[in-house]
What we know:
By secondary structure, the chain is mostly helical. 70% of the residues lie in helices and 0% in strands.
Amino acid sequence: MDPFVSLLRPLPSITWIPLSILWLGIGESQKTAIVFMGSWIYILLYTIESTKRVDPLADPRARNLGASDVAIMREVILPGALPRHSLRASR
């Protein structure tokens, strides 16, 4: 997936305008598609980086308790990737 992401990452969202006009015409769906095409690659990159920071022992622990792959993703990895507030900042 890295070569695909590396290819699409430097493209600004303005480069998608001619293709989106051909695919979707001119209207609200085209505007929404431009915003999506300009932001999805960064959302993907930040999600990948934050899931790498999840405790590596959390997956085997969940498997030992009988969790399925979907349950591990939904209950362990995605919540572990969410940003947390520091305990010092909340005091």
